[in-house]
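Quick one, tokens below. Sequence please?
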């Protein structure tokens, strides 16, 4: 029996592809967000940076390219919309797979059918929604089909493909980054939904306050905006009204969803912004990102750990008590948990943001480690070596050691570093906060130690 390059028998009927968000678009109860999807490339709002004449995305949407693409962006910015526009263009077959429901068997069946169609001169566009949910094995199955252009792959993902897609597949495709929609973009979609026949057909009016609330709750997500509008319209209809005001919208929306993925790119972006805000001494931004993580369900222990690291890495001896505050907050998280521990975390955030900053501690230890890794180690000076075991004195261990508590000021002037590192300087205090006093203390100590000149680093 003949088989294709995926090992599938050529005479076996193709398996039906698991349905996705585009496969039910004609259902009588289709959601407003699906009914209002743009039908042509010119109806797409936002993404102007990708839709210029002759751009890869426009050529893809117009059916004039066979290049496989990954569409990466937050929810509700048009990834599925672009796939829908492509499905209506050209003479190619369009097949949709949802990575949530499809397995390797379904992927192989779709590719086998694509090979049969190509033998008759018909190309296939394969849309994979939420491709980051595909396992490595499933992505490996797609690889030869993309490489040989058996299919034109359109893969949508809300997660950074660099973290969730295998490198060989990504290198054979074009990565297009979609941006969050602006309030103006969302406003265009709301106006269309209110007036067009496929939408609410002019049956409802929306006050300025209600429109502003919809935009605020949407957070750049078109699907969310249209879903909230549809629910608000249903709420108004239930009361026999045709006007949608701010109270109607509030009743339809429990609270604005926070766009944040604990395991994906948003996780890394938000924690990065959090740390950089504290390092930059912006207490308001620090509290904002803390609230954002808490509301998104981030593990509070993760937040606490990052605060403990920051307390030494970015503050250090400029305000050494901040480390104690952060460690105490981490202990409080373990002891009492959320929601009460949000207060302890907030206290630590405020302490970190408002403290004077210094990275002298991390620079000091990293400089010392750099010397060690480079082989600049040397031997321990004999007078500092352990002299407690039998025979140690015969080797000169401990001879000439000066006991610091017997010296004036409690500082014994003797060589402590190995010969190879004499004069090395690792810790260089700043003039920020407590370190300004430490800088003077260090100068006096080094005078007493006879180390008035050090090796520049």
């Amino acid at each position: 029996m003949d088989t294709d390059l995926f090992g599938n028998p050529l005479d076996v009927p193709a398996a039906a592809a698991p349905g996705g968000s585009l496969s039910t678009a004609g259902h009588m109860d289709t959601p407003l967000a699906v009914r209002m999807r743009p039908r042509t490339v010119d109806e797409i709002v936002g993404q102007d940076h990708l839709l210029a004449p002759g751009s890869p995305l426009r050529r893809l949407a117009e059916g004039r390219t066979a290049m496989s693409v990954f569409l990466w962006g937050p929810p509700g910015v048009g990834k599925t919309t672009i796939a829908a526009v492509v499905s209506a263009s050209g003479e190619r077959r369009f097949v949709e797979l949802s990575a949530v429901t499809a397995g390797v068997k379904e992927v192989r069946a779709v590719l086998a059918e694509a090979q049969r169609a190509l033998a008759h001169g018909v190309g296939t566009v394969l849309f994979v929604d939420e491709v980051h949910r595909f396992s490595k094995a499933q992505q490996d199955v797609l690889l030869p089909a993309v490489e040989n252009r058996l299919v034109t792959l359109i893969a949508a993902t809300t997660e950074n493909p660099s973290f969730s897609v295998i490198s060989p597949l990504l290198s054979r495709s074009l990565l297009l980054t979609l941006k969050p929609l602006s309030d103006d973009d969302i406003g265009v979609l709301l106006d269309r939904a209110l007036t067009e026949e496929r939408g609410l057909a002019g049956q409802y009016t929306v006050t300025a306050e209600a429109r502003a609330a919809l935009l605020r709750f949407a957070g750049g997500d078109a699907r969310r905006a249209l879903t909230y509008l549809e629910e608000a319209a249903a709420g108004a209809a239930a009361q026999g009204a045709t006007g949608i005001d701010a109270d109607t919208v509030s009743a339809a929306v429990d609270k604005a969803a926070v766009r944040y993925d604990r395991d994906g790119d948003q996780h890394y972006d938000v924690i990065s912004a959090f740390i950089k805000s504290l390092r930059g001494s912006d207490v308001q931004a620090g509290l904002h990102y803390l609230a954002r993580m808490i509301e998104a369900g981030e593990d509070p222990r993760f937040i606490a750990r990052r605060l403990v690291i920051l307390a030494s890495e970015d503050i250090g001896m400029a305000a050494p008590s901040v480390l104690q505050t952060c460690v105490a907050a981490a202990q409080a998280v373990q002891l009492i948990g959320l929601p009460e521990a949000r207060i302890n975390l907030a206290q630590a955030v405020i302490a970190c943001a408002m403290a004077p900053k210094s990275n002298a501690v991390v620079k000091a230890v990293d400089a010392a480690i750099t010397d060690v890794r480079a082989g600049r180690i040397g031997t321990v000076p004999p007078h500092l070596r352990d002299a407690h075991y039998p025979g140690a004195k015969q080797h000169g261990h401990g001879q000439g050691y000066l006991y610091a508590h017997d010296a004036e000021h409690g500082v014994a002037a003797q060589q402590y570093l190995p010969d190879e590192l004499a004069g090395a300087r690792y810790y260089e205090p700043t003039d920020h906060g407590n370190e300004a006093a430490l800088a003077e203390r260090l100068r006096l100590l080094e005078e007493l130690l006879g180390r008035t000149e050090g090796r520049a680093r």
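Strands lie at 69-72, 93-98, 124-129, 152-157, 174-177, 205-206, 243-244. The mean pLDDT is 83.
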